[in-house]
Predict the structure.
Amino acid sequence: DAGITQSPRHKVTETGTPVTLRCHQTENHRYMYWYRQDPGHGLRLIHYSYGVKDTDKGEVSDGYSVSRSKTEDFLLTLESATSSQTSVYFCATGEVGSKETQYFGPGTRLLVL
Amino acid sequence: LAKTTQPISMDSYEGQEVNITCSHNNIATNDYITWYQQFPSQGPRFIIQGYKTKVTNEVASLFIPADRKSSTLSLPRVSLSDTAVYYCLVGVLTGGGNKLTFGTGTQLKVEL
């Protein structure tokens, strides 16, 4: 499995507070992704990155921002957390030429009270 | 974006062959079809990928008809450990993640 770690693995926070989730990879993959997973919705793409400082929006980007200052790190920030952002967040990486395959991290479970 | 449709759930017994079909009517010419497996509290894991016809690996087979508007994941002789959610993904990494679409997944339950 690709070396992808996410931190924290679990977090409880209050509405209105900022939250940053970190994804770290050791595979030197060019592409990195943030997904959220909710019952009944499967996996939905939040933001993705196609290189250092190159990011773009996914399907459900409202309320989220991302940054990628290094190849290995991709940060997801909830500027002001809301209860609707309670979810499990997965980071993934990928590289063109690796058969379009994505490698997923273990996930971060976020609860916004 | 290529929207995908899968059955919500399927039940099977150990030793049987399971076929899960994914519909993707507006698949684009460059899109690949990839299947992932997900166990509770874990991230999805790659199973198999194809572009057309049939692909087989040590875990599964993937059947894609000529029109590529659907695909079927075939799991031979399932066991209890195959109980998981299976996702069909259509798209390409090139050009960015906005060309990737996950289905809502199929919950496969395998019983004795």
Q: What stands out?
A: Chain A has a mean pLDDT of 91.
